[in-house]
């Protein structure tokens, strides 16, 4: 399965803001964005903060790239999600964000069972989770309203999941998910509303980018 394997902090620097791709490290002095907040490359420092030259296309591209990097998706898959949203009745941009939010790796992250989406993806790949009692080891799998996510019985004996209750308790859980820390289970109550999704993602610019 294709995925980005380069330095995550470079993506934040390119977008000019923290994307919180490395969890708690992003809040520590070790964060590379704090040390080098300019874009990567030989002209990054020279062009720091200069957005006056960016074209309309440039703004649209940056919005699309930012959304891709937040959710850890490559272009081909992101374009496929856009195609699904385009064929679904409703606001294309909003449906696109809803689809991204209901990816299994993102749901694991939103439940507070992983520090970031990259870790959530790895946990899913290792087959630690069940959806409605069935093994789910595909990070891009989409969950639906009413789905119940649990941790497999064998995985509960792993050190990470033994300590997860205390760790996850300190992490927030979104309102459209229900989390049971005692039994380490979660349920999809409904689809997320726009206000519950990253407000810095401009879905309208993404729609304009693909509508050229």
Describe this structure in words.
By secondary structure, the chain is α+β, with helices and mostly antiparallel strands. The protein has 2 domains: 8-100 and 198-210, Ribosomal protein S4/S9, N-terminal domain (Ribosomal Protein S4 Delta 41, Chain A, domain 1, Orthogonal Bundle); 103-188, Roll (Structural Genomics Hypothetical 15.5 Kd Protein In mrcA-pckA Intergenic Region, Chain A), CATH 3.10.290. The protein has 10 helices and 5 strands. Strands 2-1-3-5-4 form a 5-stranded antiparallel β-sheet, with helices on one face. Helix 3 packs across helix 10, helix 4 packs across helix 5 (92-101) and helix 5 packs across helix 10. The longest helix is centred in the N-terminal third of the chain and has 16 residues, at 56-71. The protein is globular.
* Molecular shape: globular
Helix and strand string, N-terminal first? HHHHHHHEEEHHEEH
Q: What's the CATH first level of the largest domain?
A: Mainly Alpha
Across the major sheet, the strand order is 2-1-3-5-4
Strand content: 5-15%
Discrete helix count: 10
Q: Count the domains.
A: 2
| Estimated radius of gyration | 18 Å
User: In terms of quaternary structure, what is this?
Assistant: single chain
Q: Name the CATH superfamily classification of the largest domain.
A: Ribosomal protein S4/S9, N-terminal domain
Poorly predicted residue ranges: none
Instruction: Please report the total strand number as a whole number.
Output: 5
CATH architecture of the largest domain: Orthogonal Bundle
- Helix percent band: 25-40%
CATH topology of the largest domain: Ribosomal Protein S4 Delta 41, Chain A, domain 1
Question: Biggest β-sheet, characterized?
Answer: 5 strands, antiparallel
């Amino acid at each position: 399965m294709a995925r980005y394997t380069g330095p995550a902090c470079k993506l934040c620097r390119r977008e000019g803001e923290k994307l919180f791709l490395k969890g708690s490290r992003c809040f520590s002095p070790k964060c590379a964005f704090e040390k080098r907040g300019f874009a990567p490359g030989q002209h990054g420092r020279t062009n720091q903060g200069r957005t006056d030259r960016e074209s309309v296309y440039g703004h649209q591209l940056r919005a699309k790239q930012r959304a891709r990097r937040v959710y850890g998706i490559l272009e081909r898959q992101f374009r496929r999600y856009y195609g699904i949203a385009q064929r679904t009745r409703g606001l294309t941009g909003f449906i696109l964000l809803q689809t991204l939010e209901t990816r299994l790796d993102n749901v694991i992250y939103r439940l507070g069972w992983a520090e970031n989406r990259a870790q959530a993806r790895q946990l899913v790949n290792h087959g630690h989770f069940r959806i409605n009692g069935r093994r789910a080891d595909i990070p891009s799998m989409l969950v639906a309203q009413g789905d119940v996510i649990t941790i497999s019985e064998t995985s509960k004996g792993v050190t990470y999941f033994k300590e997860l209750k205390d760790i996850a308790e300190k992490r927030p859980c979104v309102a459209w998910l229900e989390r049971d820390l005692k039994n380490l289970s979660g349920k999809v109550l409904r689809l997320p509303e726009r206000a519950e999704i990253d407000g810095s993602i401009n879905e309208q610019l993404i729609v304009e980018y693909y509508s050229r």
